[in-house]
Amino acid sequence: MIAAARTILARDLRIVLRRPGDAATALLFFVIVASLFPLGVGAEPNLLRAVAPGVIWVAALLASMLSLARLFAADHADGTLEQLLLGSAPLGVVSAAKVLAHWLVSGLPLVAIAPLIALQYDLAPELYGTLALSLLLGTPVLGFIGAIGAALTLGLRGAGVLLALLVLPLYVPVLILGAGSVEMVSAGLAPDGQLLLLAALLVVSAAFAPWAIAAALRISTE
Amino acid sequence: MSTAIRWFWFASPQTFYPLAGAIARVSAVGAALLVAAGLYVGFFVAPTDAQQGEVYRVIFIHVPAAWMSMFLYVVMAFWAAIGLAFNTRLSAMMASAIAPTGALFTFVALWTGALWGRPTWGTYWVWDARLTSELILLFLYLGFMALQAAIDDARRADRAGAVLAIVGVVNVPIIYYSVQWWNTLHQGASVSLTRAPSMASTMLAGMLLMALAFWLYSIAATLARVRCIIRERA
Amino acid sequence: MSWGSWGEFWAMGGKGFFVWGSYAVTFACLALEVYFLRRRSREAKT
Fold it and tell me: How much is the ipTM here?
């Protein structure tokens, strides 16, 4: 079981590394969206500092959603997915491995590049740690929830827009807790509660989402 | 044992079809009578509110619609889960028949909330915890309907919708509490509408009558729609 | 509650727009749903 997960993980990472442009596109999207906000709301430093946590989190939400459509599409097109469905490894474990691989190439770079955006918004230095930690805890949750949507919309026409409609409302708690934790620190309070709740969401989604993803994949491919 | 057989007998769309028609007709009549009674109590029996004046009379549709919108989502997820677990076609049909009525009541709750908010809060929209969760609930309903509409194969549509409804219903309380926490953090709307103790008993009676009317209406609309779905798929 | 006149009833203490706006849209929505259900049911029969 562990071996199967490791094989999937290594394979997915190898595929992405062969074509790093795909992963870079979502990252670029994140940077561009975050850079557009000052052009829209004005470059007043106090305003930018106030909206920064929310803007960075919304941009992260959109970027992670954008890359979701790719999660199962290629495997579905070349028949790999069918083999995985018929294989002996539990589909839930396979799904979890795929989400993890996807997060490593799309979520983790987001966490790494977020401080750069925070710099643009002149965020106070003591907020960087909380921002990074909240993204570190929150982006995998986005991956797990989003993968359910990606599996449900597999092979449908207009899957991209539909996926957004299904998944974005479910992202709300992660957005609130993630952006909220940073705002707590900027208000001089401890962000522990929000970060712990984010961690709880991560644990719960990691425990249950893979089985929902597996069920959705079976429904979409039969 | 015999009851189990009877339940599965009703789970067959063909046997349920005439029963659904009969229940729908009775519920529709009951809903019409209760709406008339509720409106009468609401407009001619219930007194003017001491703080809000006459505008509070929106409560007779706003609160029942909000109740129904949340209740119907849970019922929808319940039928979806039953359909997924026991592979009964009728349960899945029930889930997809409930969704439009649920979305309608969610919209009504939002609309009346906005029109009520304008004279009481001075603005049509406040990011109040309840209004915001209601808005997200509307998105969840629309997502469910959009997903089912995008899938041509009825069986896949049923099952995919079921997974989404179950994921959604698990998320609804999490969304509600996170929105509530977010609301207290930002202190946007400090005006509260919770003033249950001061509510006259006739006001409560009018509200309950309307809630019962909306409930019967939902049953009638859902069963009528289930009949359409049964026929369309036959 | 007794209303002095019909004019007073429709005015709703000056908040008629909000009260009747809510009720009108609500019942229009319900009527529309019933209409579409009837049409769908007719189409499904044939």
Answer: 0.89
